[in-house]
């Protein structure tokens, strides 16, 4: 069945809570690419190809030529932050991109000024900005965000808007009563329930405004029954959580390979140093806990000790993040992996990834925004599990285990696009090539 996908006519607004390192890197990147100054490397929507039909057909269009996505010239960026810096100043502070590149797009970046944020210091202790909304209740704050979205859409002449959360990681909280139903959640908004985090208020405002919401941080945010129900009821796509970059990207590339060859893993010690504002926020134990939970789930799911206790039953997995200002956004990670092979003989793998956090995250933000808009136009609602490819802790339907293996995630994403466009799904069976050969002998 081919989906009835509405055209990507008119402008797409991409609104971002948190105009920090990641957000400014994606915005500056898109502006630079539009001017022909650079290339969208790492973006599947822009530079990735998709195979269609049999291998003999040789059809490998670019994804952006295969599915109707918004073009980069049809995007308007905006956002919120607790600091007043415009996107140019914030990008300069983040020190991810070269000042010469930023100078070339200065007017475009300076024009994007953060709207006042919904912020609660109880959720992020290490920040103290003043560009913050004040209101009597959390419901009033949600209404103010809805107004921001409506005004932005009108002022920028957008036909659609999507939101991608790129704000700081909030402190760790667990799902409670107020998160269970739409009614309880709305009651909580009116009563200023302490368990409703700022990110949840943004997500609620997005859904009520018919705006898809993707969560790039590990906070619960839309991963609560109340907001999942609301997204289904209002027919809006949601996705999360926590962009898969750096060390976890490596983990979900390497671990499936070890598991595929039935090699055992006894220990995996992951250590990181980073010095950006994200690192500062994660220096607080409550905020680190949120990240740790998200990072830890990956290996357990891929290696699955339950079905393979001999190989993975004794796995010791530890993740450490250390704030180290001299490195700025250039995160360095070390992984020590203790594996064993034939007859239990031990081996070790060491990975030392000198990555650039925001350089890896920026294309994810762009792809998510474009795919979430596509999903909305294709009338897909609720959790978009096919976008797991981009997340450390993919959101799934209740009771469904997340798929972390990046290769399976890619197959799922590509098959979803083929399915949307009425193309044959690809199973990679491939026996038919040989049966035809045999038959023709
Ligand atoms: N860079 C990566 O590789 C990566 C990977 C996975 C997840 N993430 C997550 O993405 C988020 C952004 O990372 P970053 O490096 O850009 O961090 P950053 O600290 O540079 O930017 C975050 C911005 O959010 C703002 N902010 C905080 N709370 C806010 C609120 N309630 N409303 C509006 N703005 C708010 C902060 O003032 C800051 O400017 C973090 O949560 C991080 O954990 C990043």
Tell me what the structure shows.
This protein has 441 residues and is of the alpha/beta class. The protein has 2 domains: 11-243 and 358-420, Rossmann fold, CATH 3.40.50.720; 247-354, Dihydrodipicolinate Reductase, domain 2, CATH 3.30.360.10. Helix content is 40%, strand content 16%. The protein has helices spanning 21-34, 44-47, 63-66, 87-94, 99-104, 106-110, 138-155, 182-190, 198-208, 225-233, 246-260, 277-282, 285-303, 309-312, 357-377, 406-420, 431-440, and strands spanning 11-17, 75-81, 115-116, 158-165, 213-215, 237-239, 264-274, 316-323, 332-340, 346-354, 382-383. A 7-stranded parallel β-sheet has the order 3-2-1-4-5-6-11, sandwiched between helices. It has a 4-stranded mixed β-sheet with strand order 8-7-9-10. Helix 7 packs across helix 8, helix 7 packs across helix 9 and helix 11 (246-260) packs parallel to helix 13. The longest helix is centred in the C-terminal third of the chain and has 21 residues, at 357-377. It starts with 10 loop residues before the first strand and ends with a helix. Bound molecules: nicotinamide-adenine-dinucleotide (NAD). Nicotinamide-adenine-dinucleotide is lined by residues 17-23, 80-83, 94, 117-119, 124, 127, 129, 166-169, 198, 216-217, 242-243, 245-246, 276-278, 281, 357-358, 360-361.
Q: Total number of helical segments?
A: 17
Helix coverage percent: 40-55%
Question: Helix/strand/pairing class, anyone?
Answer: alpha/beta
From the 3D coordinates, which CATH architecture of the largest domain would you assign?
3-Layer(aba) Sandwich
Instruction: Write out the strand line-up for the largest beta sheet, numbering strands in chain order.
Output: 3-2-1-4-5-6-11
Order of helices and strands: EHHHEHHHEHEHHEHEHEHHHEEEHEHH
Distance between the termini: 36 Å
Q: Given the C-alpha coordinates, what overall shape results?
A: globular
Task: Give the full name of the CATH homologous superfamily of the largest domain.
Answer: NAD(P)-binding Rossmann-like Domain
Note the quaternary state here: single chain
CATH class annotation of the largest domain:
Alpha Beta
Strand elements, count: 11
Beta content comes to 15-25%
**Biggest sheet overview:** 7 strands, parallel
**Mean pLDDT score:** 95
CATH third-level topology of the largest domain? Rossmann fold
């Amino acid at each position: 069945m081919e989906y009835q996908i509405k055209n990507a006519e008119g402008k797409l607004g991409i609104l971002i809570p948190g105009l920090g390192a990641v957000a400014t890197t994606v915005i500056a990147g898109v502006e630079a690419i539009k001017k022909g100054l650079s290339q969208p490397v790492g973006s599947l929507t822009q530079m990735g190809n998709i195979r269609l039909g049999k291998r003999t057909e040789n059809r490998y269009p670019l994804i952006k030529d295969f599915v109707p996505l918004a073009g980069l010239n049809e995007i308007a960026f905006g956002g919120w932050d607790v600091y007043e810096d415009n996107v140019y100043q914030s990008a300069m502070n983040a020190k991810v991109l070269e000042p010469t590149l930023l100078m070339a797009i200065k007017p475009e970046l300076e024009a994007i000024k953060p709207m006042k944020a919904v912020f609660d210091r109880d959720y992020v202790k290490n920040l103290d900005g003043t560009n913050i909304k004040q209101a009597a209740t959390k419901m009033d704050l949600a209404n103010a965000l809805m107004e921001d979205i409506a005004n932005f859409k009108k002022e920028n002449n957008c036909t659609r808007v999507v939101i991608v959360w790129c704000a700081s990681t909030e402190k760790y909280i667990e799902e409670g009563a107020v998160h269970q139903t739409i009614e309880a959640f709305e009651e909580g908004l009116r009563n200023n329930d302490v368990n409703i985090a700022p990110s949840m208020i943004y997500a609620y405002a997005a859904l009520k405004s018919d705006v898809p919401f993707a969560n790039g941080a590990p906070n619960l945010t839309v991963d609560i029954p109340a907001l999942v129900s609301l997204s289904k009821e209002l027919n809006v796509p949601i996705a999360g959580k926590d962009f898969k970059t750096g060390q976890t990207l490596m983990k979900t590339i390497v671990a499936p390979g070890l598991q595929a060859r039935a090699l055992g893993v006894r220990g995996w010690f992951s250590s990181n140093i980073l010095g950006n504002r994200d690192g500062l926020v994660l220096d607080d134990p409550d905020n680190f806990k949120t990240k740790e939970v998200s990072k830890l789930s990956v290996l357990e799911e891929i290696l699955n000790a339950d079905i393979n206790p001999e190989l993975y039953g004794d796995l010791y997995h530890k993740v450490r993040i250390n704030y180290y200002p001299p490195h700025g956004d250039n995160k360095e990670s070390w992984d020590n992996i203790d594996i064993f092979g034939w007859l239990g003989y031990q081996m070790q793998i060491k990975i030392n990834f000198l990555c650039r956090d925001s350089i890896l995250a920026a294309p994810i933000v762009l792809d998510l925004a474009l795919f979430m808009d596509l999903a909305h136009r294709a009338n897909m609602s609720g959790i978009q599990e096919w976008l797991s490819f981009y997340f450390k802790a993919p959101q799934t339907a209740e009771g469904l285990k997340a798929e972390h293996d990046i290769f399976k995630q890619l197959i799922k994403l590509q098959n979803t696009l083929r399915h949307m466009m009425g193309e044959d799904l690809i199973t990679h069976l491939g026996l038919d090539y040989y049966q035809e050969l045999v038959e023709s002998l």
